[in-house]
Specification:
disordered C terminus, 59% helix, five-stranded antiparallel beta sheet
Length: 467
Amino acid sequence: MRKKICIALLALCVAVGAGACSSDESNAAKEENTKTEAADKTEDEADTDKENEDETQDSSEEEKQEEESSAYRMVSVDDVTKYVSVGEYKGLSLEKGVASVTDEMIDSQIQSELESHLETDKDEDAEVQSGDIANINYVGTKDGEAFEGGTAEGFDLTIGSGRFIDGFEDGIIGMKKGETKDLNLTFPEEYPSEDLAGQEVVFQVTLNAIKHVPELSDEWVEENTDYKTVEEYREGVTDELMANEEAARDNTLLNTAFSTVLDGSEVMEYPEEDINLVMNEFKAQIELMAEQAGTDLEGFLEGQSMSEEEFEEQCRQYAEYRVKQALVIQAIMDAEGMTFEDKAAEAAKLQMAQELGATNFDQLVSVYGEYAVYSSLGARVVSQFVIDNAQIQDEGAIEEPEDVGEELTDTAEEAKSADQDETGSEDEAADQDETENEEDTADQDKAESEEDTADQDKAGNEDGTAD
């Protein structure tokens, strides 16, 4: 917005300058006097003018740098806290699914690769059999006239797949390369097209080639992949599938994190400037869709059985949802000091460009539009921030922050040490009791053996005192 204002001001300055030139040309006499006065300027005055010019240039450079460094914002308002109350986004408990790959997934992926490398049967006398892939040209006619959707060339049809009406695939069985054959068939009564349902037609079919799905072998793997053996190939497919599953799991976690925060947030007021912007964008998209369908907005709405009032309401609902997203994103970014130019955002820009096959982030903006791309970028960086500050439950376990884990470890070690101390004390006390008992017994025997000593109680006391 600021750049647009600057451009407008620049255009205004050019206009003013042009007007000034016209005025100067109509006042030649005054110019002559001005030249005389200018010649009398002192050297100090010239230096002063130069300094002022330098200061003006420096100021312009600073303004230019400030404009270039100004961060993109999702909404037009500066203080988003007046418009939205953001739900809790730190310390959330989020569940992360488990990425897994089954044998069925591996086999299916390998089968798809095999089917994309069909081998043509070179035997000129070969006949089409069930399970073969027949490459055909065909023309369907009704009452001698070709009907819509009944003609194709170079079509690969797997015989026995049931893709065509009854009798079509069976009629191709036994055909040889280059052979042409007429198939007299009848469309089923329940066929979707009323013009063809229950109608008798003729398909003229020409067989171009017979193809087969190659067998999986070390030779095929080495010729068609980056691997040398079937075993290596299966391991590679497994790794690729696992990477895809993990990426899908991570994307699901990102969506869950953002939707959790979004659901817990409440919009207190919608900035109308943003609402109008998104509504106009949405209407433009619908009008483009209508144009591509060969109609206008009115015809499109009529085809959807929707009134203009209902359409306006849908546009409003869509805009409110998009603006709520933008407000929540911007509120969290403001609160956490995040921008679309920081390290996390730059990394996300690069990732988005790679995922969508673009050379860079700017190309995404030029193709999809600034608002749409930055909305996606904002949701991504904010969701990742939420995840980084959440407790993630993975495979039934809670990943605790490192400091919490250290505290738990320290506590366990202290408890273990305490147990050892307590056990040691108990053992020491037991040893002492046993020693004292042995000494008491010895003293007692000694006391009984001494006839000239005092009575046993006194001896015991004296022994105990001695001990």
